[in-house]
Design a protein that fits this description.
Elements: H1 19-46, H2 63-78, H3 82-102, H4 111-138, H5 141-151, H6 154-161, H7 172-182, H8 187-199, H9 209-221, H10 225-237, H11 245-252, H12 256-274
Helix pairs in contact: 1-2, 2-3, 3-4, 4-5, 5-6, 7-8, 8-9, 9-10, 10-12
Length: 288
């Protein structure tokens, strides 16, 4: 769920780089491109199971997503897991999207190149279906959630929801996944799963910012503006594009005393998340 637009504002960030650095980096990238191409051709020759012949090899179009896909397929061959298959699916999607554009480009006097692009597009669609069928065999929480949320498989959704309350879903990511199902059905239950996702996050380095943003927005929709304000302040601390303090003060309309009280709670929550020790009881149930 995305935060309310009047709370969160997008900001563009720029970066200045000296021309000498740009030239050096560009030269390195150019050298790397040729090296990667030689390595990719060799890995295709050494591993027929990669089926590189199904891709538009020797075509300048879609080189980067094609190369990424080939190298990841090699990882999958070495260690096939549900997570590696999910990543392969996403990389195949990115490659297919590029091919859809490339297939519309009319090469000058190169009918064979156009045919290869079309064939690669067809093959990428077939590979997506293959990966979908392979993922269904895993029946792990991650694969079930992916098949439901990304492909719309209702049987996978049913199987995933049947795991609610089990140890298999006791991870920050999967608690957030549960929350996404209940967001339009049961706000209180959604809050419970979002909070538990944070409770299971033992390092701020692994923090899912969407959890905090969702709490701010959800409490706002539930008209619990004190809690919404607290989570807006917390999300700002961890990098969300939130209105500045003055705008938040005007938006929520608290007096200075009440604002200071809520700021203290927000700081306690921030410290707890940084220490990997957050618990939902840090925020009193009745703040209104």
């Amino acid at each position: 769920m995305y935060p309310s637009s009047y709370i969160y504002t997008l900001k563009a960030h720029g970066m200045k780089i000296k021309s000498l650095v740009v030239m050096t980096v560009a030269a390195g990238l150019l050298s790397g491109c040729f090296e990667d191409r030689r390595n990719t051709e060799q890995v295709c020759a050494d591993h027929p199971l990669l089926k590189c012949e199904e891709l538009n090899m020797d075509d300048g179009q879609c080189r980067i997503p094609r190369t990424n896909l080939i190298w990841h397929r090699l990882d999958v061959i070495k260690k096939p897991t549900d997570l590696s298959k999910i990543k392969e699916y996403k990389l195949t999607q990115a490659y297919k999207k590029c091919l859809e554009v490339a297939a519309q480009i009319q090469p000058i006097e190169q009918a064979e190149l156009k045919r290869r692009r079309f064939n690669a597009l067809v093959n990428s669609g077939a590979n997506l279906k293959r990966l979908e069928n392979e993922l269904k065999k895993y029946k792990t929480p991650r694969s079930l959630y992916f098949l439901w949320s990304q492909i719309g498989d209702l049987d996978s959704r049913r199987r995933f929801l049947q795991l609610e309350g089990t140890k298999e879903l006791e991870t920050p990511y999967l608690q957030y996944a549960l929350a996404t199902f209940y967001i339009d059905r049961d706000p209180e239950k959604t809050v419970k799963f979002l909070n538990h996702s944070l409770e299971l996050t033992h390092s701020s380095k692994n923090l899912n910012l969407q959890v905090i943003e969702s709490l701010a927005s959800l409490y706002n929709l539930m008209k619990e503006k004190e809690k919404s304000y607290i989570w807006a302040k917390v999300s700002k601390e961890f990098g969300a594009a939130v209105a500045d303090d003055k705008q938040l003060f005007l938006l929520y309309g608290f007096d200075e005393k009440r604002k200071d009280q809520l700021d203290v709670i927000a700081e306690q929550v921030i410290d707890a998340i940084n220490d990997g020790e957050f618990h939902s009881t840090l925020i009193p149930k009745n703040l209104n």
